[in-house]
Write a structure and sequence with these properties.
Blueprint: H1 2-20, H2 43-49, E1 59-60, H3 63-84, H4 88-104, H5 112-134, H6 138-158, E2 159-160, E3 166-171, H7 174-177, E4 180-184, E5 203-208
Parallel strand pairs: 1-2
Antiparallel strand pairs: 3-4, 3-5
Length: 210
């Protein structure tokens, strides 16, 4: 009888230890099947409420503008990867280069609608890049990164540039489960809002250009 008791206790203890030491799942729900408790919010509507326009038509832009934005996006990807690794020094370095590149970008076209949209985007980039650089905590930087991502999404939606596929990714857990988006150059999920804590947490919701 004692042997049965001790065997039961041993198995119970092992199970309890295993459960408590299970690694965190990538997300709170099964994102592969599309079931997400905090479902992606409509980003276009969200941006409209913030006064960030997305043009109804995808406008062609001069080659030079496209080149500058391609370089700008590559620095954004460096910032993103630095946030994944919680490397604030490298993230700041990327943000500083983005600010410099922003000063080189001319208006995409002379048409009033495109010029006005770019004014909004460039002002948003500058404001949030400066805030990003000045932010002291990693969490603050991640917040400003989410704002920069929104302006970048709007830019790629409004202006037609020859570019490889860009993936819009949603994290339902970011910022106390309010959720946030970011842009990725490929389908691999590397979450800049959590890094190693929830590295694979994310759902691709759109691929640009459509």
């Amino acid at each position: 009888m004692k042997a049965i008791y001790w065997n039961f206790l041993l198995v119970y203890t092992f199970c309890l230890f295993a459960c408590n030491n299970n690694p965190k799942s990538p997300c709170p729900d099964d994102m592969e099947t599309g079931f997400v408790q905090n479902r992606p919010y409509n980003l276009t509507d969200h941006l409209a409420k913030k006064g960030i326009p997305i043009l109804a038509e995808n406008y062609d832009v001069p080659r030079e503008f496209g080149y500058h934005m391609d370089t700008f996006f590559n620095r954004y990807l460096e910032m993103e990867e630095a946030l994944v690794k919680a490397d604030t020094a490298k993230a700041n370095a990327a943000a500083n280069v983005m600010l410099f590149l922003l000063s080189l970008v001319d208006k995409p076209m002379k048409e009033k609608v495109t010029a006005k949209a770019w004014e909004t985007y460039s002002a948003g980039y500058e404001k949030n890049l400066r805030a990003f650089i000045g932010a002291k905590s990693l969490q603050e930087k991640r917040l400003y990164f989410s704002y920069i991502s929104e302006y970048l999404y709007s830019t790629f939606k409004s202006f037609h540039m020859k570019k490889e596929d860009i993936h819009l990714v949603y994290c339902p857990m970011a910022f106390n489960e309010k959720g946030a988006y970011w842009l990725s150059a490929n389908h691999k999920i590397r979450n800049p809002y959590f890094g190693d804590e929830r590295l694979k947490c994310g759902q691709i919701t759109e691929v640009l250009p459509e």
